[in-house]
Amino acid sequence: MEELYRGTHRLIRAGCRATVKGTTIASEIVARFGGLMRLRLATWRPMRLFLAWCAYWLTLVLAVLGPAVPILWRATRPDAHGTVSVSFGSGGIQMTIVQDAITVWSRSVSFAALSLWLALPPLVLWVFWLRAQRNARTVSSERAAQAVGP
């Protein structure tokens, strides 16, 4: 690994326009690190893709609502004087936490933004997955054709 780091560091120091045996530095770096950093979408089955979507949605919910959990707990304890409201309207969804007549946390999101946050990243991952599946099938059929020969 140390040799890999030194070689890549030398390539980067040489400058972005330099070439090594006819290949650009960027392609050399991709060739060296490609095996280490690749997600290998071509090997994913539909269930793994679905689990990746679920992990994204869970992370999104935790990132958005995670900071509200301690505030929500403080506002809804038996000895506290607080309210929690979630409203759906023409403008979108709004959640508000009020404690002792003071708004301590409030978030709102439009339906358009919410639908983009929920659907766009999984759809992009799905498109990349479909492309990887198609490329894997093409490569395997080419290998099979080469193995059979003329």
Which descriptor suits the 3D outline?
A: elongated
Category by helix and strand content: alpha+beta
- Percentage of residues assigned to helices: 55-70%
**Count of helix runs:** 5
Largest sheet: 3 strands, antiparallel
Segments where pLDDT lies below 50 for 5+ residues? 15-20
Q: For the largest sheet, list the strands in their spatial order.
A: 3-4-5
Put the structure in a nutshell.
It is built from 5 helices and 5 strands. It is an alpha+beta fold and 150 residues long. It has 2 domains: 1-38, no CATH class; 39-148, no CATH class.
Which helices and strands appear, and what pairs or packs with what?
Blueprint: H1 2-13, E1 19-20, E2 23-24, H2 25-37, H3 46-65, H4 68-76, E3 82-89, E4 92-99, E5 102-109, H5 111-148
Antiparallel strand pairs: 1-2, 3-4, 4-5
Helix pairs in contact: 1-2, 3-5
Task: Give an overview in words.
The chain has helices spanning 2-13, 25-37, 46-65, 68-76, 111-148, and strands at 19-20, 23-24, 82-89, 92-99, 102-109. It has a three-stranded antiparallel sheet. The chain has a two-stranded antiparallel ribbon with strand order 1-2. It is elongated and about 80 Å long. By secondary structure, the protein is of the alpha+beta class. 61% of the residues lie in helices and 19% in strands. The protein folds into two domains: 1-38, no CATH class; 39-148, no CATH class.
